[in-house]
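Hi X.,

You mentioned you wanted examples for the new student's onboarding notes, showing what a folding record looks like when two proteins sit in one file. Here is a clean example. The first protein comes first, with its sequence line followed by its structure tokens.
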Amino acid sequence: MMALAGYPLGVRCTFLDRAADAPGAQVAPILLGDLEDPARLAELAAGSDVVTFDWENISGAALAPLERVTAIRPPRAALEASQDRLTEKALFSRLRIPVAPHAAVDSEAQLLAAIRRLGLPGILKTRRMGYDGKGQFVIGTLDDVDLAWSRIGGAGLIYERFQRFSREVSIIGARSVAGDIVYYPLAANTHSGGILRHTVAPFAGAALERSARAHLKRVMQALDYVGVLAIEFFVVDGRLVANEMAPRVHNSGHWTIEGCVTSQFENHVRAICGLPLGSTRPLGHAAMINFIGSMPDRARMLRIEGLAFHDYGKQPRPGRKLGHCTILAGRAKDRGQALMHALRFVEWT
């Protein structure tokens, strides 16, 4: 989707991926190799005006040598901050962005001490390499501690007090090389099993959006950020509590392809290539549904007015994001009805 957004601008992409059938290979040349292979990364950097990433689990150390050859955008500091939940929360706290009460955990004894201090229920998470609900265990009572520790226990964990939230929302913005910032409307997200199922935007809530924009701006300015950045929040008693950030284009912003004047993918390309940012004005009321594990019947979905269908060309497997659809309508009511209609044809596996 990033490459497709770049083509009309005259921007050409080359991808580094481990699989020859990666979605990017359908639209651009691909280098095959491990994402941290020094030789492959050097080859990618040597042939690129700028290197970017759409997955935050590549190490900053692997990218560091490339900075002598080409630009790395977003900056490595943002990537590294997002890779460790404890470091990420420290960044948020330093910037006066509310976070859930939490504690570092490296042993079962430390977990019990954190539970005594922070209370139950809570969530035990790996500090690194966790996404789409992976590496997490909800602890409701002390009876759950042994099972939680047997599942993910070890050094490098974090315990967070559970947040009784009314909504999960996300804000996405882009910052240019010159420091200009544009914001997309606040989006409301529905998750299950830690994986995003569907998103609606714009989400009505002017005060929450002002707060989300202010938080995003602080992070971008603190990191001298270039590119698209997303922050996910819980809405707790009418205020935002930051959950995590993603230094990349974000799943909750896929609706912007059809739903805004300039998509998050195009604005990411514009930003990292030193081009002016485009308008983020919404073109209507949008919804996005992820296709997870299996694809719905394309013909049935396309009969729904205002629906755009995206098939990533991936091989199906349980829990894998295979595509998405976007619904765009002139009224929130019509968007909601079309979303409910489309969800009848989607089976998540």
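Then the second protein repeats the pattern, sequence line and then tokens:
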Amino acid sequence: MSRFRKEFLLKQHTPIIHFQSDQSGATLRATELKPKFDRFLIEIFEKEQIDYKDFLILGQERALDYKVKIEPNMSLSTTIDGRSPLFFGNMGDGKDKEFKENKESFKISFSSFNIKLKEYIEQYFEAFLANTNFGTRQSKGFGSFYIDGKSFDKNLVKHKVYSFSSSKGHWDRDIKLFYSFLRQGINLPNRNGTRFYAKPAIFLYAKERGWEWDKKAIKEHFFPSDLVTQQKKYSDNSPINYSSNNKKLLRDLFGLSTEQLWMSYSATVKQEHDDIERFKSPITFKVVENMVYFWADNSYKDILGEEFKIITKGNSPLTLSTPTDFDFNDFFKFIKTINLSQVVESKYQSENEYRTLNKILQNLKVQR
């Protein structure tokens, strides 16, 4: 092999969803990978105070002087199942996006006449893959690639990493279930009413901190009669009856959308802020083999202590603030203490979702 070239053998662990999936060969693209890898390397150079001006393409400030060639065999692709628990893009007219997946390992090669830059590429490419997914819905585990034959090294991730084992072929179902449990709770209906129900972990955490979470505060302000009707069905010590004067906007720390449809109330709830319109989830899931790794980056800290105006039609606004002292690692630490049998009613504990969620929590409990 040329001294100016470095090859890696990659394995694809989850399908990639590409916006040009109707084009032949739409898969992991150099046009997506190189800008991401450039930013990753430059961040390292700046942190380590490495002078990288000689690594740049002449006349460009943030593009490194190397080339990438990816050689996958894209003879096989599968159409996205409309029922996929983590993808909702094929809801309208037009050509459906497709999963693109390489069943066999494939080569990626880097070439640069700058030997020192090539050495940095060789040194940091695995760390880049550990921190990065590709394509659409990448934060939820899609587009996960890793070096073939290597076990995932969580020490390469910039943030504290947690993990749980997943049933083969069901990583997306397990991520959907776990993420729902973290943020908004789980309420699965059947013909007779509710098949499985679990309050969200963020609600339980808020109660532990003496906070009232935003969904309860919104119900109190905009839908008080509906809330009273719900509360009458439960005992006074039920979580649904917990109240506090210290009300916090918490669900949006997992990702902010300015508009939510509250279907049970036939209402649209909007959130307004002078400067913040959207905020993506700080939590990333990375799937390698049958393990699901996840972590939270520090982006959520940018919206701590921020005040939002909550609005729904025909009502006076409600003002809620995110907490000033929230930390995702403290929240994940709390999750390890949850005894699912005490927070999910016994009538739901025979369901597969209970067993799966309990298995995930047991995986987390044994981790430091």
